[in-house]
Amino acid sequence: MSLLAFLPAFAPFAFSTLVVSGLASKALHIGIHIHSLPFLYLVIYSPTLVLPEILIITCARLLLQWPAPETKLQWLSTCVGGILGLLTWGASAIQFGFFIQTGAEVAWNASNSFLSDPAAMKILLSGISTVFAAAAVLGIAAWLLNTQVYNLTGLGLQAIQDLLLSGYNFCRGGYQTRYTLLSAPSKSWINSVDIRSARRAAFVVAACFSLLFLELVRPAIPYDHLSAALPLSLLDAFNKKSSTLGGCRNPATTFPLWTDVDPVPLDEGWSRPSWLPQNPPGGFRRWDVHPDQRAESDNPSWYLCGGGDDGGFYNPKADPLKISNLDRGIYDPLKKAFEQHAVSIDHVILVTLESGRKDMFPMQQGSPLFHSLLDSHPDEDRDEATDRLVEMTPVAQMLTGEYVKNSKGKPVDLRNATWHDTAQKNMGGLNVRGAVTGSSLTFKSILGSHCGVNSLPVDMLEESLLEIYQPCLPQLFEAFNQAKKPQVEPSEEHIVEKRSLAPNQSESLKYPWKSVFMQSITDDYDRQDIMNEHMGFRHKVVKSTLQDHESKYRAEGEEINYFGYAETELKPYIRDLFEEAAINKTRLFLSHVTSTTHHPWETPEDFAMEHYMGNQGNINHGLMNNYLNAARFVDNWLGDIMTMLDEAGIANNTLVVFVGDHGQAFGEDNRDLTGTYNNPHISNFRVPLVFRHPHMPRININANATSLSIIPTILDMLIQSHSLDERDSEIASAVLPEYQGQSLIRPFLPFINETSGSKNTTERDLTPLGPEYEHPHFKSVWNFGVINSGGAIMSVMAANIPYRLILPIQEDFEYTFTHLGDDPAELNPIKAWTLSDLVDLVETKLGDEPAAWLKDAEKVGRWYVNDQRRIWGYREA
Prior knowledge:
The chain is of the alpha/beta class. The chain folds into 3 domains: 3-238, no CATH class; 338-495 and 505-709 and 719-747, Alkaline Phosphatase, subunit A, CATH 3.40.720; 753-876, no CATH class. The strands form 4 sheets. An 8-stranded mixed sheet has the order 5-4-6-2-7-8-3-9, with helices on both faces. A 5-stranded antiparallel sheet has the order 12-13-14-15-16, with helices on one face. It has a two-stranded antiparallel sheet with strand order 1-17. A hairpin with a 6-residue loop joins strand 12 and strand 13. Helix 4 (72-102) crosses helix 7 (128-177) and helix 7 crosses helix 9 (195-217). The two termini are 47 Å apart. The model is unreliable at 174-187, 297-307, 486-504 and 755-776 (pLDDT under 50).
């Protein structure tokens, strides 16, 4: 087929898809942010917002010009124009599909991390139906309009060309008449000039200069972001960034609010700690290598390289945000139990609850979520709906001690639960109310719970390529093992060093630890397998194990989502592991991550679905109903785990920690934005945190803590309960103060009051903070939350203040302020594109105190972003 025969059909359609898709995408782009834009400014600068589209449309129309001589150049221009149109069509469909699913817009600069990861591609493909639907609508519109759009654009360009030529001729004629001296122009010349065309040309020139003026004077934020054209934004997907550790860390920068620390350099009075094993696991290297020897180390990441007195590494003595509570007394009921040797901890299990929300662990009346769930039902059905909802998570009730009541005010019947708690009344451990996650990206959150470190505020799991700056739990247990000689594999017959034990200490203190990681889904998403190795896990059971023909137990069910299988496929592996711990004299550390409560919230076919949601309102309640059923499935699974512990006979000497990696926002929480991707809503951050032991008194702790407290609490429990021998206790006691989090077996300190005015004072007033924000007297615990996918926006909170700032790391996002005391569901956030505008709005609506805190929070957040990159030794290449 000749090109001239092909062009009449293809060129107009390709051009129309570019115009329709590009302008529709721009309308969506502006519409998402329109509520935060001053109306007058939007009207004034609106012509500049579509200027990039106009330029691209003009270029595309010239590329797809026809009829024209059939030449190689014409073939090339048609191919380029056609590809540009089809790419814009596809990208716009992706944007609309993503918006329909989540209410957010695609961040193209983070997309290559997904495109290069096969497991991540499954997440993207899970929403392919909405993308195809959007593509179909855009394609039909482009097809119906292709002739009109193509012809009208061509006529417009021709008219502009004619106008400019007329203006040029007019100017050229006027230039020539200057040299007629004082003689008047001839009548024939006047008649030859089209005055009307010249005026039109002048108007076009004036409009162009006006657009140029508006482009130059408009504020960069947010209008540069809003004016970005879709084809140009696609280029961000090809800007691949990689993390590097060039051997040097930058010196620490001055903290913006206070300087009450007197840092002690790491090399001052240095000597190798006596407790450090000869060949310590990763995470201990800053104790192992003297600063003067770091340049000779095999690992170049330990060079000093001008990083300040501490080499740029994390130094708790120089951390302006660290508040320790280790000098505070242990809660009296716990202290009594520890002194009586009533608590024995031979094994530790850490269960990470995927998308685990605190307001559903357990589900109970009174929360904003519960009210919104009931709103889906008519009034006459609400009692029945209430009873179904409160019966959904019986195991969570027993684990937390938060026993709920039904619509008649009676306790929920727990007899049908998959586990029955044998702990005595008022026993069961610590239940933390108010915990928030450090990241709404699962694996970054796991770094906090397993390693006690803050995550990097960059997209995806770049930490997997870097040295984790604290010892993770498997590394701590391996350090305990290395102190026991001779060293043997946990699965072998154990011959351990003969050591004297204190009175009442168990023989189990001599046994080695075995660290195992288990999940029923793939571990190759976003380099999780690499990170697990860096954390020190040497044994694992994951999806590949369940599919391996040589495995002891192969998966019997079907895969339930794009990641893998239901948790119940792990049951025989966990049962064997518990029995091994009981019989083979092994101390177990098991890390288990659930997954069923991850999108798309599918459950096995033999799991009976309940109808928790009604049909009231204009929200699709089906997604929430699936999530609630998935949460009930996981609750049953947690009961299975606890039952297996009982059956193996190790429940009474096992500490089980339950923590949510992050929450999960739905339309019932926030109609504008759902999911976790670039969604800062508070429902994505409130998570359960429970330390379960049947011989520990039940204590409810109201603290805005994070998963940074998990390792300090576990170590403190092991030490105080005499569950470590003398050597291991020495190691645990030495590293415990190094972690950034506080121990939760002691009263949590959300702030300290610098009453003396001295920057280096050691005596502080610990009286509770009043309602006033009295900076700089109060030094707060700051909680930072990295928001999925990590590098765009961040949550900033202070543990003693009910305010929350969403801080944009990139300029493409808005500042957001909420008062969680007055608005716990964040229904009325205050947004602005600049900090100064947000401060003005907050001051006007809420007063001086929140505005003062907001300015401080922004400074602390900016400092934190840079300091975390310094601590991790992260650079972008």
